[in-house]
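Thread: "does anyone have the structure for this chain?"

Original post by V.I.:
We have the sequence but no experimental structure in hand. Need at least a predicted one for the grant figures.
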Amino acid sequence: MVGVPKLTRADAVAALRNPLAFIADRWTPEPRTVRRAALAALVMSVVIVVTGGAVRLTGSGLGCPTWPECTDGSLTPTQALTYHSAIEFGNRMLTYVLCAAVGWAIVAARSEKPRRRSLTRLGWAQFWLVMGNAVLGGIVVLVGLNPYTVAAHFLLATALTTVAVVMWQRTREGDAAPRPLVGKAVIQLVWFLVLASVLLLAVGTVVTGAGPHAGDSSDVKRIPIDWETVAKLHAVLAWIVVTLTFALWFILKAVDAPRGPLVRTRELFLILLAQGVIGYVQYFTHLPELLVGLHMLGSCLVWIGVLRVLLSLRERPEAELGLPGPAAEVTVPTNA
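Reply from O.Q.:
Generated one for you, tokens below.
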């Protein structure tokens, strides 16, 4: 058996001063471990959105009527509260699971050899987004589920997913300068697709803020607009995203693009079709909670799909190490 090294006083002081550096000096994760850590953070960023949607769809948004405590004088639900309290409190507890996943991603990225500062920065960006959204979530409760704060809460969660996708992608790439795999016109088309998708998500939050699922059984303020009209605009934007995706796939086939962009575009197209079916069914069946929850999951998957298409348009090989070249021959002039 291999003996466990003793922890000296100097080690303990070093661990307290800089725990990440202390761990990195003693552990080198395999590349697949770093990839799995980044993927875990991405999965949890989606889970927290879906469970947050479950809180709203079950009318549990004010199950814990205050923040950071659940009730005045108690961090946990009391016996006098209902199952709504358990649902809201459970979603709050999942924030700690999300923090653990992001923390694992940070530790794994910091410990990788050679050190990649870009990965560590992406991990810390996720951490601060989680902290910011936790505070914003508290504000949402304190202002009684104001729909504008709820929309901001979702959009900040989408920003977290964005950074998580980028970090997961970067764990499978090198650190050299990115090289485009397609032409400039294709890249511009994809950026139009990204812009249309952002508008689609933003309008979707307006549909939520004006729609019937307020997040609590009490009288909650709604956005003063006809939600069915906004839903139709949302559908138009969805068709624009679908059309741009199909056009992109057609162009990539025509120019014989690399396999990566083609596969990612096809995956996005299939996700959009499934999301469209769910969207129309939920509209014509008067927004049943289960379908609305699936639609929220689909919105996350659509955005992830769009980002993966964008990131597939370039490659980043391993950075080349600068090795010294042969010494130049020096000619010493001779006096005639």
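V.I.: this helps a lot. The beta strands are 179-180, 314-315.
O.Q.: and The chain has a mean pLDDT of 86.
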